[in-house]
């Protein structure tokens, strides 16, 4: 069917799960940078809105405690590379955080101009302006301390593991990073929505971070499969676990093993790795089950790939969704419908899914109850986004709430082993929190190593 100058074999109305629903140029536009970078003039104007508050609330609201007024002043005075150094001193993945932080619930929510005018200083975009400037020059602003001869193993090359490895390398230790996946970056590479980290930014940032030296990445090496915690402890002076949450929760509804019912994170990882998005199959009617960032990202990106209808179904009320109001608005603006207070009770179909049956729910003092009234949604693809779980955690570590129990700066129940990021207890599951926890554990490991 000719459309927009391109010959298509499929359209938004083609039944089933098929690739190429849109013309080539639509994929390019749909997955372009969703918030284009500021140019130098725009950055100056944005920086001039900062009041450079004393005791600035935005610093406290940032999990990595970046000195925001200082870096904004450095931009305002025409020294963006100094600004980048200020940011990166606290947050070595400041480039990615500038793109993915939910700033509306972090630094920008705390900005006094948000309280006064409902329009905060654009901290995230200014952070991106500064870090992009420095990274474009290919320079790495930090150097290593003299070698200490100490060796640390880091499991997981996501934001927590990378931040930990970088801080340890700066202190002069040698760091070996083991990751189960073929590429480093964790969810920066395999999870974050494609339009937030365009043009291979995740991989470029890892390459830039490794310029510190002293870090060796071992891809395709999984703890529990290729080595044990005892092996790592025997060969290293300390171990940091930043393995994220590799498992996914089941729906526990009959029929969930039907074809085209799959974890949302699997679909998103495939999308992030696709060289050509037009080759990625997507359903005509997509149903996403869940209420968090993963559900929103799976739904929005299904729509951007050309699905005709996309519906998120969440079992509780809107106020309980872990996706922020901003993210929910983003989903509805992209054409995604959100249904609240409904839970899946059966997945119907013949081989592949055809419909999902939901029961209305009531969330009261006794907890969540299924009501007798049900409804069905047409679906040729279903994404499960009801939470990730810790998988493959070594058995001798204490757990808390299904995660590795930690105290203070990431100390686990076993001496010599630290943990941080999504796999560890406490803290929100955000990129910036993982960076803060990896960095803080590294400082504690360093103190331990130098006695
Ligand atoms: C779809 C999605 C979208 C998101 N969007 C945002 C967003 O926009 N903004 C935001 O702030 N946060 C977002 N998050 C959350 C954020 O990505 C995570 O909080 C963050 O990546 C956690 O970092 P981490 O280093 O703890 O874990 P991860 O990034 O998950 O990295 C863990 C690494 O450990 C490796 N690993 C796992 N098991 C093993 C093993 N046994 N042996 C060796 N290696 C192992 C994995 O391969 C992975 O590379 C999103 C999450 C998802 C799932
Ligand atoms: S790292 Fe995130 S929360 Fe902290 S200042 Fe930057 S954008 Fe805001």
Keywords:
single chain, 451 residues, alpha/beta, five-stranded parallel β-sheet, 21% strand, globular, disordered N terminus, binds flavin-adenine dinucleotide, binds iron/sulfur cluster
Describe the structure.
The strands form seven sheets. The protein has a five-stranded parallel β-sheet, with helices on both faces. A five-stranded parallel β-sheet has the order 9-17-11-12-13. The longest helix is centred in the C-terminal third of the chain and has 19 residues, at 431-449. It is an alpha/beta fold and 451 residues long. The protein starts with a strand and ends with a helix. The chain is globular and about 65 Å long. Helix 5 (80-90) packs across helix 9 and helix 6 packs antiparallel against helix 9 (123-136). Residues 1-6 have low confidence and may be disordered. Strand 11 (285-289), helix 15 and strand 12 (309-313) form a beta-alpha-beta unit. It is 34% helix and 21% strand. It has helices at 24-30, 40-47, 57-61, 68-76, 80-90, 94-100, 107-110, 112-117, 123-136, 159-170, 187-190, 201-209, 229-235, 264-273, 293-304, 325-333, 431-449; strands at 2-3, 6-7, 17-18, 151-155, 174-179, 215-219, 238-241, 247-248, 261-263, 282-283, 285-289, 309-313, 337-339, 342-350, 352-364, 367-378, 381-384, 388-389, 399-400, 403-404, 417-419. Residues 100-101, 155-161, 178-181, 186-187, 191-192, 196, 222-224, 242-244, 246, 265, 268, 293-294, 297, 392, 421-423, 429-432, 434 line the site of flavin-adenine dinucleotide.
């Amino acid at each position: 069917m000719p459309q927009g100058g391109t010959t298509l074999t499929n359209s938004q109305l083609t039944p089933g799960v098929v690739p190429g629903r849109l013309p080539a140029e639509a994929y390019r536009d749909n997955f372009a940078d969703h918030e284009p970078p500021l140019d130098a003039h725009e950055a100056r104007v944005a920086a001039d809105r900062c009041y450079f508050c004393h005791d600035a609330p935005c610093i406290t609201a940032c999990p990595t405690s970046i000195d925001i007024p200082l870096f904004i002043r450095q931009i305002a005075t025409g020294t963006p590379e100094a600004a980048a150094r200020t940011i990166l001193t606290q947050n070595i993945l400041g480039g990615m955080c500038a793109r993915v932080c939910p700033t509306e619930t972090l630094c920008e929510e705390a900005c006094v101009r948000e309280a006064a005018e409902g329009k905060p200083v654009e901290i995230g975009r200014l952070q991106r302006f500064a870090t992009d400037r420095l990274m474009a020059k290919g320079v790495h602003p930090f150097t290593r301390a003299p070698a200490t001869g100490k060796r640390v193993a880091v499991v997981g090359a996501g934001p927590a593991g990378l931040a930990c490895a970088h801080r340890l390398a700066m202190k002069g230790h040698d760091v070996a990073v083991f990751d189960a996946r073929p590429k480093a970056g964790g969810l920066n590479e395999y999870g974050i929505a494609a339009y937030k980290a365009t043009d291979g930014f995740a991989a470029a940032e890892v390459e830039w971070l490794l310029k510190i030296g002293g870090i060796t990445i071992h891809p395709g090496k999984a703890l529990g499969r290729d080595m044990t915690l005892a092996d790592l402890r025997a060969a290293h002076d300390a171990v940091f676990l930043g393995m994220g949450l590799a498992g996914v929760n089941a729906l526990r509804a009959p029929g969930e093993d039907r074809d085209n019912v799959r974890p949302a994170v699997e679909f998103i990882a495939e999308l992030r790795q696709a060289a050509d998005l037009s080759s990625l199959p997507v359903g005509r009617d997509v149903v996403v089950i869940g209420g968090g960032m993963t559900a929103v990202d799976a739904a929005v990106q299904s729509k951007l790939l050309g699905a005709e209808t996309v519906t998120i179904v969440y079992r509780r009320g809107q106020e309980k969704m872990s996706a922020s109001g901003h993210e929910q608005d983003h989903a509805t603006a992209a054409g995604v419908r959100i249904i609240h207070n409904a839970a899946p009770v059966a997945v119907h179909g013949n081989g592949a899914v055809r419909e999902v049956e939901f029961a209305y729910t009531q969330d009261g003092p006794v907890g969540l109850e299924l009501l007798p009234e049900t409804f069905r949604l047409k679906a040729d693809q279903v994404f499960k986004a009801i939470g990730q779980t810790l998988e493959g955690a070594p058995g001798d570590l204490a757990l808390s709430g299904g995660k590795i129990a930690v105290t203070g700066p990431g100390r686990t129940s076993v001496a010599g082993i630290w943990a941080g990021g999504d796999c560890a207890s406490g803290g929100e599951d955000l990129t910036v929190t993982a960076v803060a926890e990896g960095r803080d554990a590294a400082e504690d490991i360093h103190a331990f190593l130098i006695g």
